[in-house]
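Workshop exercise sheet. Pairs work together: one partner reads the sequence aloud, the other fills in the structure field after running the prediction. Swap roles for the next sheet.
Pair: D.N. / O.F.
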Amino acid sequence: MQSNHGNPIATEQRMMFDDLAWERSDNIAYNWRDNLFNEEIFREVGRAIIQHRGGSPEELFNPQKGSFNLMFRMKFVDGGSAIVRFPIPGVSMFAEEKVQREVSVMKFIERHTSIRIPHVLHHGMADDSPAKLGPFIVMEYIENDSDLVDALNTPGLQDDERCILDPNIHENRLRLVYSNMADVLLQLAKKSFAKIGSITNREDDDYDDEWTVTHRPLTINMNELVQLGDFPPHLLPQTTFNTASAYFLALAEMHMTHLSVQRNDAIESAQDCRRKYIARCLFRKLARENRLCSHDYGPFKLICDDFRPANVLADSEHGFKAVGVIDWEFTYAAPAEFVYSPPFWLLLERPEYWNEGLDEWTKEYEKRFPVFLAELQKREQDLITRGILTDDDRLSQHMLESWQSGDFWVCYAVRRSWAFDMLYWAKIDRRFFGHGDLDDRFNLLTVEERDELDDFVQRKLAEKDERTLVN
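Structure field:
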């Protein structure tokens, strides 16, 4: 389904996380969690849930950890439950901003879609936090016994193993899950916004239904860059964006800054550093020339960076019926190219982590993508028939074109910093620059970029040597 542009100039692996930054992140998170388990903290947390939910409490469960948050659940005598959820320090790098943005988008989704999400009962910042655990959200708990990963995952995998789509999954189950996921994507993308960024309304006015982009897009990649790449937060994008080209350029610049500032595990050798530098310069060149996007002035539509089957709660006793969608952090109005890109999660595993390599991931993806497209088209027609969407809201043709053209890889690479090198050389370079070798690519750089390359490589090698001496 995708065009073959020839063998890549370089075969790159994923860039590694800065393991010292990762260790520091883990230590902060562990120390915070270790201090949770005392009676007084549990009492304060329980009182906060009761205060904002109301009713007679029955049981407060032990906290549960997610990717970015930790939650306490309280069950009430009337049969319902509520939770309080805290971003985990050391893992959630912009905790207060994350809570504010997530609450805003949850209120929007609750008003403007039929997607079932937990109702927000209250939220607050660190100053108002129960037990001083940090910013928090008190919300309804949606009863479930599984999520849609459980419906798709390969049987027998251990809890610490990465999830992979069951190669023998029954097609009816696959279609059911894909249909549920397609419904969420379609409803999330039905409204357009004037800018790229995070949305809000006047939170102090319960009747205000005017949602606008007022804050920078807070993305999962930005969080990970600070957490796992030791990226200075002030160098991240700080504003909203009026055009897709401006945003693509900002992300391309962010890739270059990432290579420059990550001190540990960023490069393996002088040649590796040279390739990484050239790839980022050329990607930035494409962004400057506005060759990476075709919907410069929109429409800009909501996308959740972390949306995947794990976010969709399910009832396994009723055929994994979807019962709700959670974890809306990192949701923002994005370039149309992102929303029109096919989902990365069709195989559960991301392409850069596929054990058999990128080509094998692509082959497996192309087996499942037609199934997803068929279910997406069915959901489109159903929602149009019910008056929820219009013909202009269809995503299926856009997603097919994105995959066939290779735009899927551009959108994925621009949003995944540590996967960038692998994807640039394998899927992007030949498409835009054609035949040639690394010397040809070097000659495409600006005079300034060529002049700076040797010094850049020497600096990164010196940082690498410093780490070696420390070890």
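Discussion prompt: The chain has a mean pLDDT of 95. What would you look at next?
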